[in-house]
Design a protein that fits this description.
The structure holds 2 protein chains of 2 kinds. Chain A has helices at 2-16, 20-53, 59-69, 74-85, 100-136, 141-151, 156-169, 172-178, 188-198, 201-231. By secondary structure, chain A is an all-alpha fold. In chain B, 44% of the residues are buried. The chains are: A mainly alpha, B alpha/beta.
Chain lengths: 235, 249
């Protein structure tokens, strides 16, 4: 019990003293996660919206496929990206394995299906309301997509938050493609796993506390934005 | 003069030389194996407001959707004489407001209809003035009252400067004051040369606004007469019964 108390105290000290190693790891985690979520939103929003408003043979299968990708095991994604980026793989010459870029690629693959599947649902609901209006205004497909995406922007926060949650908490894929190299590819989750296995609970706890606080703060900020917009009937 | 330019409104009525703007000819539309309109035929001329009347389920809103090209007939024809899709605008009974401000809704419509950025402020101001919504221009459209939303929906439709404006019971759930404001806008648009087709259950409103009346019952046009004739000497038994307030089933 005393060990745990001492670990908490040491963790607290690391945080308040703005420990350089700790904040380097936090910085890299945020860079990787936010980059992956941003790319996933750029890909997932239009893909989900397009699926929501399109009707073509096989659409149902694609919708089911993308929804099922939401539960992709991170280690499988990590392994796949590893195989592509390893020196023997088709993209081996790019020399991206064990770099933050490889970690962003792996997280993007994990997060994009989540963003796309949730976007499809959100846009499909909104399209049910707007469809006749937009068609009666002779809106082209491109205009319909942009109108729906813009008007659903606050609801799409939920989709990006779900993606962010997945990316922030993810450990398996980034461990495989990043290698958890100190000062290069070590992020919060891989560092927590490593430090815990070494018995260095102070750094693991410090990172754990920051991870939880970050997750709560980002969620709270975005949800409060959404709630405010709901009050003004914009969401 | 070609045949299409002189169409009898109904047996015995004077031919009307106003320009033919649209025509439904033997239109059939069914849903779930039930024919909702069957052999629907009537013409629209650019000569004032046409009201479409009839009991619930008569096919009034469906006729508007066919004219607006939101639905395609399963049989028959919808002729729109020289009208492009962007020349036709539709206002729904329950206005659909974009999740934007009043101004945002109008700017969206102006953009869609290709009004260039420089002209937009002037057009926007004009539309806000028409709808008497200048003081609410920055308010969220979905928080307006029913009457304000319907005025906004109407001027948003007019932003496209349509040649044919289809109104689906735009005052169905409005109080007399809000109804009056909508009717004023409709009259204004009609006086400016826009052909208006108004679906209404309100006989008083039809009397106030209509130049001619199409009476539908069970998906079929039983009568198409000048308004005066329709209200004083309806030609069909169904229209007579409807005007007497009898229940048509």
């Amino acid at each position: 019990m005393q060990d745990i108390q001492a670990a908490f105290l040491a963790a607290f000290n690391l945080i308040v003293s703005l420990d350089a190693d700790l904040f380097e790891i936090v910085g890299l985690s945020l860079t990787v996660t936010l980059s992956a979520v941003a790319i996933s939103c750029l890909l997932g929003f239009p893909l989900g919206a397009l699926l929501a408003i399109s009707r073509f043979p096989g659409r149902g299968m694609i919708v089911v496929f993308i929804s099922s990708l939401m539960g992709l095991p991170p280690v499988v994604v990590g392994l796949t990206v590893y195989l592509f980026l390893s020196s023997a793989g088709p993209l081996g010459s790019w020399q991206m394995l064990y770099t933050p870029t490889a970690m962003i690629i792996a997280q993007t693959l994990l997060v994009t299906p989540i963003v796309a599947a949730l976007t499809r649902q959100i846009i499909e609901d909104l399209n049910g309301e707007y469809s006749e209006l937009l068609r009666s205004m002779s809106a082209r497909r491109r205009d319909i997509l942009s109108t729906l995406l813009w008007d659903a922007r606050y609801s799409l926060i939920t989709a990006s938050l779900a993606g962010m949650g997945r990316a922030l908490a993810e450990v398996g894929a980034v461990m495989i493609v990043g290698g958890n190299i100190n000062h290069v590819t070590r992020v919060m989750t891989t560092a927590i796993a490593l430090e815990t296995s070494k018995g260095e609970l102070a750094l693991a706890l410090g990172l754990g506390i920051i991870l939880v606080l970050l997750s709560i703060s980002i969620n709270a900020a975005l949800m409060s934005l959404r709630t405010n917009m709901e009050r003004f009937a914009y969401a | 003069m070609p045949e299409a330019d002189i169409v009898q409104l109904h047996d015995g009525a004077e031919p009307n030389p106003a320009r033919l703007i649209a025509k439904l000819e033997n239109v059939v539309f069914a849903a779930r194996s039930r024919k909702l309109v069957d052999g629907l035929t009537f013409s629209l001329r650019n000569n004032g407001i046409t009201t479409i009347m009839g009991p619930n389920g008569a096919g009034k809103s469906l006729a508007l959707r066919l004219l607006a090209r939101l639905l395609l007939p399963m049989d028959g024809y919808v002729h729109e004489c020289g009208l492009a899709a962007r020349d036709i605008a539709l206002v729904f009974q329950k206005p659909v407001m974009l999740r934007r401000s009043v101004k945002g809704n109008l700017i969206h419509a102006l953009k869609l209809h290709g009004v260039n950025r420089r002209e937009r402020p002037e057009r926007l101001a004009e539309l806000l003035r028409m709808a008497d919504l200048e003081h609410l221009s920055s308010s969220p459209a979905r928080l307006l009252s029913g009457g304000e939303q319907q005025r906004l929906a109407l001027v948003r439709a007019l932003a496209a400067q349509p040649r044919l404006l289809l109104l689906d019971e735009p005052t169905a759930s409005l109080d007399p004051q809000a109804t009056q404001a909508i009717e004023k806008l409709v009259m204004q648009a009609s006086n400016n040369g826009t052909k208006i087709v108004l679906v209404t259950h309100d006989i008083g409103q039809a009397r106030r606004l209509a130049f001619d009346v199409v009476f539908l019952h069970q998906g079929f046009a039983h009568e198409h007469s000048p308004a005066e004739t329709f209200f004083t000497e309806p030609q069909s038994l169904e229209a007579m019964a409807y005007l007497k307030g009898e229940l048509l089933v």
